Amino acid sequence: LLLGCELTASTKSYTFEVDEEDDSDHILALSVVCLTDGAKDECNVVEVVGRNHENQEIAVPVANLKLSCQPLLSLDNFKLQPPVTFRLAAGSGPVHLAGWHRIMHREDASFEEDDDLSEEDEEELPPIMPAKK
């Protein structure tokens, strides 16, 4: 699934959340952060706000964009674990963020073994021989 959002002076943050009851694994990857039409030549700092292993909120700047010197930054699919908030910490934008969201469904453990296979269908492995000296 594709992800896109825009941060501006009036909309300074965007939060990506998943349903707490969903037992799937979710990965959010941030690909590009760029200034869009109407941006001023000022520093625009984008932060990612999440939680650390002690469940404390942490904010990490991921982009510092300026129209005259760096209007775009490729983040090479910077992977995050939802919930995560993108925040415009400085500047007025508009800043566009693009990436993707992958959902990996956990398989039911009862389907791990296929009881329909007979012993004849199973491939026999050759014995392991000791290494020669």
Total of DSSP H or I helical runs spanning 4+ residues: 0
Task: Output the CATH class name.
Answer: Mainly Beta
**CATH evolutionary superfamily:** Nucleoplasmin core domain
Number of strands: 8
The CATH architecture term is Sandwich
The CA-CA distance between the termini, in Å, is 55 Å
Mean pLDDT level: 82
Spans of at least 5 consecutive residues whose pLDDT stays below 50 are 108-118
Radius of gyration: 23 Å
What is the 3D form? elongated
Classify the beta-strand content into a percent band: over 45%
Outline the structure in words.
With 133 residues, this protein is an all-beta fold. The strands form two sheets. Strands 1-8-3-6 form a four-stranded antiparallel beta sheet, with no helix packed on it. The chain has one domain (1-102): Nucleoplasmin core domain (Jelly Rolls). It contains no helices and eight strands. β4 and β5 form a beta hairpin. The protein has strands at 2-7, 13-16, 25-35, 44-51, 57-65, 72-80, 84-90, 95-104. It is elongated. This is Nucleoplasmin-3.
List keywords for this structure.
Jelly Rolls, Nucleoplasmin_core_dom_sf, mainly beta, 8 strands, 133 residues, four-stranded antiparallel beta sheet, single chain, elongated
Write the layout of secondary structure elements.
Elements (H helix, E strand, L loop, with lengths): L1 E6 L5 E4 L8 E11 L8 E8 L5 E9 L6 E9 L3 E7 L4 E10 L29
Antiparallel strand pairs: 1-8, 2-7, 3-6, 3-8, 4-5, 4-7
